[in-house]
From TrEMBL:
Organism: Bombilactobacillus bombi
Pfam families, per database record: HTH_1, LysR_substrate
Keywords: DNA-binding, Transcription, Transcription regulation
Protein name, per record: LysR family transcriptional regulator
Family: Belongs to the LysR transcriptional regulatory family.
GO MF, one example: DNA binding
Domain HTH lysR-type: 1-58
Cellular component, GO annotation: cytosol
Length: 293
């Protein structure tokens, strides 16, 4: 099978016109037609039906199935090209959320340096939701990621190495600062500092709100965890954060949640299911697996 035929087929389905598909692909219309005929002959099914009266085309059920598969094939080919290109270099394309990096990477740095791995690691730092897209798209190959529940994507291999609770961060000046525990429902009237969707915290916050049947006001959604902590320190609101996000040096008070709701800050080592680790990456995974999380 010619993968270019799949490219033409996908664009035809998207454009819904042989003429527009040919223009988009910078080829003649007969080239598109011939590609579709080759695919139909190879799979022994009808992929496209033309309505010449109304000048429309209809994608058959078989065509819709092939369209979905073609999208997955293209992604795998793109990822394979990136992986093959990366074998010429020794760098480790590694994703790391700010919270996990700040809390755990320093404890590994000396050992990684001894193994001559530290200089090979090219870190992409962003929230776990954003890292998930990058690892699926082949922009990074390994990541430490957080998730409220175990990752179950068929395209990913994920190994949980630790679970941490979520808590409420408040300013020492807050009227809540004398508390060490609280039920989430008791925060219904509080002003919250939130985070943008690249972090798992947003979904966890929404789940806790649904569980407690409350709808507290979010006064600001910050693009970075350090911004969240700064605004909470200024007593402009409270925040739901992973326990490890609040460092001893932060001028914040932790209040642990008494709710039995099973949301946790699951920390996992993640790679694509079919990705073949290099020797250096295998060493890194081994060291990450032994971290005290």
């Amino acid at each position: 099978m010619n993968t270019r035929d799949l490219d033409y087929f996908k664009i035809l389905v998207d454009k819904k016109s042989f003429t527009e598909a040919a223009i988009a692909c910078h080829v003649s219309q007969p080239t598109i037609t011939a590609a579709i005929k080759r695919l139909e002959k190879e799979f022994a099914v009808k992929l496209i039906e033309r309505d010449r009266i109304h000048q429309r085309l209809h994608v058959t059920r078989a065509g819709k199935i092939l369209y979905q598969s073609a999208t997955a094939i293209q992604l795998k080919l793109t990822n394979t090209q990136k992986e093959l290109a990366a074998t010429a270099q020794r760098e480790i394309r590694f994703g790391l959320p700010p919270i996990i990096g700040t809390a755990y990477l320093p404890q590994l740095a000396e050992k990684l340096q001894q193994l001559s791995l530290l200089s090979l690691i090219k870190i992409t730092e962003m929230g776990s939701n954003a890292l998930l897209k990058k690892i699926l798209n082949g922009e990074i190959d390994l990541a430490l990621m957080a998730s409220p529940k175990p990752l179950t994507y068929s395209d990913l291999k994920a190994k949980i190495i630790g679970r941490r609770p979520f808590c409420i961060a408040v300013s020492p000046k807050s009227h809540l600062a004398s508390l060490n525990q609280i039920a989430f429902a008791d925060l219904a009237d509080e002003q919250f500092i939130g985070v943008t969707a690249q972090y798992v915290h947003l979904k966890v916050f929404q789940n806790f709100c649904k569980y407690a049947a409350i709808n507290p006001h979010i006064v600001y959604s910050a693009p970075d965890i350090s911004w969240v902590k700064g605004l909470v320190q200024a007593n402009l609101g409270v925040a739901l954060l992973a326990d490890d996000a609040i460092l001893p040096t932060d001028q914040l008070h932790k209040i642990y949640l008494t709710d039995p709701y099973p949301e946790r800050f699951n920390i996992s080592i993640v790679q694509r299911q079919e990705y073949v680790l290099s020797e250096a990456e295998t060493q890194l995974v081994a060291e990450l697996s032994q971290m005290n999380v």
